[in-house]
TrEMBL record:
O-methyltransferase that catalyzes the 2 O-methylation steps in the ubiquinone biosynthetic pathway. GO terms for molecular function: 2-polyprenyl-6-hydroxyphenol methylase activity; 3-demethylubiquinol 3-O-methyltransferase activity; polyprenyldihydroxybenzoate methyltransferase activity. CDD domains: AdoMet_MTases (cd02440). It comes from the Bacteria. The gene is ubiG. Coiled coil: none annotated. Its EC number is 2.1.1.222, 2.1.1.64. One of its GO terms (biological process) is methylation. InterPro entries: SAM-dependent_MTases_sf (IPR029063), UbiG_MeTrfase (IPR010233). Keywords: Methyltransferase, S-adenosyl-L-methionine, Transferase, Ubiquinone biosynthesis. Belongs to the methyltransferase superfamily. UbiG/COQ3 family. It catalyses: a 3-(all-trans-polyprenyl)benzene-1,2-diol + S-adenosyl-L-methionine = a 2-methoxy-6-(all-trans-polyprenyl)phenol + S-adenosyl-L-homocysteine + H(+); a 3-demethylubiquinol + S-adenosyl-L-methionine = a ubiquinol + S-adenosyl-L-homocysteine + H(+). This is Ubiquinone biosynthesis O-methyltransferase. S-adenosyl-L-methionine binds at residues 47, 78, 99, 140.
């Protein structure tokens, strides 16, 4: 796709102002592993393990390499305060992070500067920022918060370079996720109230259809589950949360 195609992939707005406001209020506490984003801190190693394996398989790299993303561009959409952007940068990528909340971008930029990581953080709709193409496009627990899911996936696809890899994760819309991720999680203070709206959760079948409409093929999803013994971990059970890769159809 040309840069013009990237910038004009869709004119639809994907940001919900109320969602940006909700997460913006959490920005100052985002990097506190015991704070309001504690669940994300526990989830991040699971995501990273999946991403590392997917990167190694996709590009056939050295599994022992400390920087498997060297000389590659990575885009994380809905980056929050940079919990995923920073490890991607440490894996060697030239990283751009985009978020709907200005407060998150400020917190992310300050934290990256303190860590000596040259991450390019941007605020706004990805379709209007003229970012170009990326070898790796990630968006973790974001699609359930956007206004127009089809437009959002189209924007992600428009930024994926030929031969690139996309990684997405999101809660599944099941009775189990409604009970545990919304009801129990908020009641126990595991996530701030108002974070999740169950009706906006996306099933694997729905996500596959959205990706297909955008010209992408989705691989077999892996579940992210929880147990007392293992904590959060990859599983074949997709009932709570799942993570997938996608790439341009050949």
């Amino acid at each position: 796709m040309s840069d013009a195609t990237v910038s004009n992939a869709t004119n639809s707005a994907t940001i919900r102002p109320e969602e940006a406001e909700h997460f913006g209020k959490l920005a100052a506490d985002w990097w506190n592993p015991a704070g309001s984003s504690a669940m994300l801190h526990r989830l991040n190693p699971v995501r990273l393990g999946f991403i590392r394996e997917a990167v190694d398989m996709h590009w056939g790299g050295d599994v022992e390499s400390a920087k498997p993303l060297a000389n590659r561009r990575a885009l994380d959409v809905g980056c929050g305060a940079g919990l995923l952007c920073e490890p991607l940068a440490r894996l060697g990528a030239e990283v751009t992070g985009v978020d709907a909340a200005e407060e998150n971008i400020a917190a992310a930029s300050n934290h990256a500067a303190g860590a000596g990581l040259p991450i390019d953080y941007r605020h706004g709709e990805i379709g209007t920022l003229g970012l170009g193409h990326f070898d790796l496009v990630t968006s973790m627990e974001v699609i359930e918060h956007v206004e127009d899911k089809q437009a959002f996936i189209a924007q992600l696809a428009a930024h994926l370079a030929p031969g690139g890899l996309m990684v997405l994760s999101t809660p599944n819309r099941t009775l189990k996720s409604r009970t545990l991720l919304v009801g129990a999680a908020e009641a126990l203070g595991a996530v701030p109230k108002g974070t999740h709206h169950w009706e906006d959760f996306v099933t694997p079948e729905e996500l596959e259809a959205l990706l297909s409409d955008a010209g992408l093929a989705m691989a077999e999803p892996r579940g992210i589950g929880f147990s007392v013994g293992k904590g959060l971990h990859l599983t074949d059970d997709l009932a709570l949360n799942y993570i997938v890769t996608a790439r341009h159809r050949s």
